[in-house]
Amino acid sequence: MQKHSVIFKIQQWMCVGCLCLSPMAVSAKTIMVLGDSISAAYGMNPEQGWVSLLQKRLNQQYPKQHKVVNASVSGETTSGALARLPKLLTTYRPDVVVIELGGNDGLRGQPPQMIAKNLGQLIQHSQKTRAKVVLLGMKIPPNYGSAYSQAFEKNYRVVSQQYKIPLLPFFLQRIAGNAQLMQQDQIHPNVKAQPILLANAYPYIKGAL
Predict the structure, then answer these.
(1) Is the pLDDT of residue 12 over 60?
(2) Does the structure show a pLDDT above 60 at 25?
(3) Fewer beta carbons within 10 Å, N or C terminal of the chain?
(4) Is 37 among the catalytic positions?
(5) What pLDDT was estimated at residue 23?
(6) At 35, which helix (H) or strand (E)?
(7) 160 pLDDT more than 70
(8) Contact (Cβ atoms closer than 8 angstroms) between residue 166 and residue 207
(9) Helix pair angle (50-61, 194-208), 10° resolution
(10) Backbone angles phi, psi at 99, to 5 degrees
(11) One of 66, 126, 160, 188 is an active-site residue; which one?
(12) Phi, psi dihedral angles at 86 (to 5 degrees)
């Protein structure tokens, strides 16, 4: 009887293990993109934007494993996102938070120290929920002065090092300055630029998964 009891317990353990490994027991990882007009698909249909393209690529490579939430708002600043973030984290409980912010702060001439502080708080709040954070860096046009432009760009490096998170130095690399990839306002990337934005960000996002 004792031998049969041991065998029964082993069978029970194996069944529990099977349940743990069952695909039904694994929920999809949620990736939340917290950005401004560049990620909100300004000037085009939402499905044309790089965030929607991200979901499509994940669906192809990892079917039903990842869900992308676009929490981006055109005109968003680091302060505005900071006010919205607690509710977003509670609502979506993201596993990965992609922060694409700071451009509007820079265009408004906000102090670099304030931008860095806000970025740091966005990262801290996200990390407290055990979410991994990816930071997409930006640059400001040179007409704002070299001192301000350098301080603005340095923010991203300092913050990413402080909180030990991956940083894409310049989200608009291979796009900025190319009129064929920009909308008429020469500020926002057009539809043709969206796959490039995805190509720039994807290695960093994939690494966080």
Answers:
(1) no
(2) no
(3) N
(4) yes
(5) 38
(6) strand 29-35
(7) yes
(8) yes
(9) 50
(10) -100, 120
(11) 188
(12) -55, -45
CATH T-level fold of 27-208: Rossmann fold (3.40.50)
Q: Are 38 and 103 in contact (CB under 8 A)?
A: yes
- For 118, other C-beta atoms within 10 Å of its C-beta total 22
Inter-residue contact 51 to 39 (CB < 8 Å): yes
Of 165, 188, 173, which is closest to residue 139 (Cα–Cα)?
173
Q: Given its phi and psi angles, is residue 43 left (phi above 0), alpha (psi -120 to 50 degrees) or beta?
A: left
Is residue 4 part of the annotated active site? The answer reads no
> What is the reported pTM?
0.86
Whether 188 is catalytic is yes
Please say if the pLDDT value at position 173 is more than 80.
yes
Q: Is the pLDDT of residue 15 over 90?
A: no
Closest to 100 measured CA to CA, from 83, 68, 77: 77
Across 12-26, 124-138, 156-170, least confident range: 12-26
How much is the pLDDT for 142? 85
Whole-number Cα distances in Å, 114 to 10, 18, 108, 111, 193: 59, 51, 12, 5, 30
CA dist 16 and 25 (Å) reads: 12
Q: How far from the centroid of its chain's Cα atoms is residue 125's Cα?
A: 14
Q: What residue ranges do the domains of the chain occupy? A: 27-208
* pLDDT for 6 beyond 60: no
CA 57 vs. chain centroid, Å, equals 15
Active-site option among 5, 22, 146, 185 = 185
